[in-house]
Design goal:
The complex is a heterodimer of chains A (153) and B (277). With 153 residues, chain A is of the alpha+beta class. Chain A is 42% helix and 15% strand. The radius of gyration of chain A is 15 Å and the shape is globular. Chain B is of the alpha+beta class and 277 residues long. In chain B, a hairpin with a 3-residue loop joins strand 4 and strand 5. In chain B, helix 9 runs antiparallel to helix 10. The chains are: A alpha+beta (153), B alpha+beta (277). Chains A and B meet through strand 4 of A and helix 2 and helix 6 of B.
């Protein structure tokens, strides 16, 4: 099936099996390797991307869901001003250990700051609750998002 | 395996009439896990996520109609839901995770029919009905009569759920209750869930609707317990009798998530708490 969508602000068209996982479309057909697979069941958030501006787990979405939509990945968002600001904050607070979960946390953080942005620990915890870090680094992640909220405002 | 994307709603009904053994795909958060795990093999997929008529929340004189492919995010953010059904609004805040709330749909949670489906006990407590449509027929089925067994329901192969219908006054002047017991706050699959509404006048329970999830082959109302406590003052309720009736209405199992004794005791305690409130 031919699907067309906007990928990191660029219009793209691809002939793809419609049930192919969106995560695989991004990684295999577009060589965007930022979104990762860990659980493959939508529980860990390593595969998070923005679909029409909302964070979703791309491992349990299909190519069909991308048709006609706007998709943004860590590769695109990290080039934006806010994206760079957030990366700096993660960097300064040493919030990233192995880095596997980071693209997912980054996208959930970006979405939170863009749509709400209040420096409120409980709200941040809720916004990041779909992302799991197995290096046990949550406190530093929350610290970095708190810092990013402060700077972004 | 076939993949069909109907061009409009009429085309969807035609497709449903002519496709065997099909699965409807909206948000995909349940079905894709089952496909990826090999539980569903070579499915015929009918994609419905793009059909606008199936999503959105409307208000009529007496009822609220929720389109079946309305996402949980849209349900939670709806002013209508917050205005009329605080039970639903509050209970769904911790549904799965924000990432899943964006994709997962209310109709999907019902149609998938998991014993642990979060929204079903809530809708049972609100006495919701389902509008089920095919090309030539439309019918309303009370949610309490929808399930017939584990992941089995009354729908025919050519039907789909188009709307979830709730009376606007469903929880007005009622005390509401919801508790979901899971291992963590987000992304928890319930070990036990209890949803209920009760109307108490002069210390007497005059109406109650009580529903449980994760305790049977499908979420269900506890009609015997409801009947026993209706018309009684709190001091008149014999909790041993409540337990006895409850025992005949729930069939908790032991699995990797919890064991049946734990589920049973938690359920008893939650119901006692709600009745005592």
């Amino acid at each position: 099936m031919k699907i067309s969508f906007t990928l990191n602000k660029q219009a793209v068209t691809i002939d793809v099996e419609p049930m192919k996982r969106l995560l695989d479309v991004l990684r295999e057909d577009f060589n965007l390797l930022g979104a990762k697979e860990a659980c493959g069941e939508g529980e860990c958030g390593a595969c998070t991307v923005l679909l029409n501006g909302e964070p979703v787990t791309s491992c349990i979405l299909n190519a069909a869901h991308a048709d006609g939509s706007e998709i943004e990945t860590v590769e695109g968002i990290s080039q934006t001003e806010l994206g760079k600001l957030i990366i700096d904050c993660f960097d300064e607070t040493n919030a990233v250990q192995c880095g596997f979960c980071f693209p997912g946390f980054f996208i959930s953080s970006y979405h939170y700051i863009k749509t709400d942005g209040e420096k409120d620990l409980n709200k941040i915890k809720t916004a990041l609750s779909g992302n799991i870090c197995r290096c046990t680094g949550y406190e530093k992640i929350f610290e970095s998002v708190m810092l990013a909220c402060e700077r972004a405002n | 395996m076939k993949f069909i994307k109907p061009k409009d709603i009429e085309n969807l009904y035609d497709t449903l009439d002519t496709t065997e053994q099909q699965y409807l795909l909206a948000g995909g958060t349940d079905i894709n896990v089952q496909i990826n795990n090999g539980i569903i093999r070579d499915p015929n997929i009918i994609y419905i996520s793009h059909l606008k008529e199936l999503s959105g929340i409307e208000e009529t004189n007496n009822e609220i109609l929720i389109g079946s492919t309305t996402s949980f995010k849209d349900v939670i953010e709806s002013r209508i839901i917050k205005k009329y059904f605080l039970l639903m609004y509050n209970s769904l805040q911790n549904f799965a995770s924000p990432l899943i709330q964006t994709s997962a749909t209310i109709g999907g949670n019902i149609a998938n029919g998991s014993p642990t489906a979060d929204v079903i006990p809530i809708l049972l407590a609100l006495n919701a009905k389902l509008l089920i449509c095919s090309k030539s027929n439309k019918r309303e089925v009370p949610l309490k009569d929808f399930f017939t067994g584990y992941k089995k329901n009354v729908m025919k192969n050519n039907e789909l759920i188009t709307k979830i219908i709730i009376n606007k006054n469903a929880e007005q002047k009622y005390q509401t209750y919801y508790q979901k017991v899971g291992s963590r706050n987000s992304l928890a699959i319930a070990k036990v869930a209890v949803a209920g509404i009760k109307k108490v006048v002069k210390e007497k329970i005059i109406d109650i609707k009580l529903a449980v999830g994760s305790l049977n082959e499908y979420p269900r109302r506890l009609f015997k317990v409801e009947e026993y406590v209706t018309g009684k003052r709190l001091t008149e309720i014999d909790f041993e009798k409540v337990e006895e009736l409850l025992n005949s209405e729930i069939t908790p199992i032991s699995d990797f998530r919890s064991d049946k004794e734990y589920r049973y005791h938690v359920c008893v305690n939650l119901i006692r708490t709600f009745l005592n409130e």
